[in-house]
Amino acid sequence: MNNPPPTVSGPGNLARMVPVSAVLAAVERLAPPEFAFSFDKVGLQVGVPSASVGRVVVSLDSSLAAIRYAASVKAQVLVSHHPLIWDPIKNLAGEGRAAQAVRLLMQNDIAIIGAHTNWDCAPGGINDVLAEKLGLMETEAVGFAEPRRTAKIVTFVPPEHETSVIDAMSEAGAGSIGLYHRCAFSSLGTGTYEPQEGSDPYLGKPGDRETVGESRVEMVTPLNRLEGVVKALTEAHPYDEPAYDVVMLREAPGQPAGRVGFTPRSMDSCAFVDYVDDALGTKSLLWQGHDRPISKVLVVGGAAADCWKDAVAAGCDAFVTGEVPQHIAVEASEAGMTILASGHYATENPGMARMAELLAESLPVAVEFYDPAPGLAGRPID
């Protein structure tokens, strides 16, 4: 039987109600979906955006055990690192795990949100937490990243409505630059228009030419959020026919998943394995590629064994990940890279515990972290 996980303290214990869309927005502020790799399936997978939420459960896996736990505590949302739906589900019949899980979610009115490679890459996410657990210093993001495809959206709004329009566009995903949100630029100018019959002008009346002071507002938005940002702009804008421009921007470097940093002290391979195992509460497998002291380390949690080449490129002494297939163990160690397989659960679960803490701080609903008992639902026996 699973040990009951603790409720994460914070504003969430006020037990107010918010829509599923507000929980999704909070997750995406932490783990922007544009950081996700192209193969990934993130975001709201089951549920209705307008449904009310008073309790959220956060879990590493979208397991049946996690869903049953969410149902037992009457949660309305499960936020999972590993998405439930990867491939199209042809029907919900039978005993397949995905079909069972979807039925169980629907029977209990639980929505599920996936935050996968976007949370791996995000500042403060899975791999930053992993680096923190290992005490790495002077960390920086390295390795593959999806290019950022963005546009700049420009609109013209009466100055007294500037704040509300910027707020609406920001809530829809515009104005995020690195660790800064709600980034916008505005400048004052003069607009002119001549309303026609059937229009509903903010100022003036049909047939009269108007000249008014307006703010030009500019915000950057990821392309995958452009439609929602335009919708938010038009709904918040006081004009019945708001003007706006969309300017496509050049691709920019994305946010890598890997983190490189330095250990607090140099140590040999055997001491380094003990150090990692003590920090993560795990039992790592080690393939020793050299006998020099270990100081500079690349970490990428989960199934990221291919990233060992990023460790070589960054001049690292060791690479820590979750799982390592035999062919990569051979290739990496023979290429001179010391590599550790420290477990998928051990390298990623701390990052989901951190997400639960952050969601509890930002949402006025109860937030709990589900951690299965050892040996159950994907957690190895300690």
Tell me what the structure shows:
The chain is of the alpha/beta class. It has a six-stranded mixed sheet, sandwiched between helices. The chain has a six-stranded mixed sheet with strand order 8-13-15-16-17-14, sandwiched between helices. β15, α9 and β16 form a beta-alpha-beta unit. α5 crosses α11. The relative contact order is 0.19.
Task: Supply database-style keywords.
382 residues, alpha/beta, Udp-n-acetylmuramoylalanyl-d-glutamate--2,6- Diaminopimelate Ligase, Chain: A, domain 1, Alpha-Beta Plaits, 3 domains, six-stranded mixed β-sheet, disordered N terminus
Give a brief outline of the structure.
By secondary structure, the protein is an alpha/beta fold.
N/C terminus separation:
16 Å
Helix percent reads 25-40%
Alpha carbon gyration radius = 24 Å
CATH fold label of the largest domain = Udp-n-acetylmuramoylalanyl-d-glutamate--2,6- Diaminopimelate Ligase, Chain: A, domain 1
The DSSP helix count reads 11
Give the low-confidence spans: 1-5, 9-13
Order of helices and strands: EEHEEEHEHEHHEEHEEHEEHEEHEHEHE
Q: Which secondary-structure class do the elements indicate?
A: alpha/beta
Main sheet record = 6 strands, mixed
Averaged pLDDT, please?
A: 92
Give the CATH class of the largest domain: Alpha Beta
Shape: globular
- CATH architecture label of the largest domain: 3-Layer(aba) Sandwich
Q: How many domain modules? A: 3
Tally the beta strands.
Answer: 18
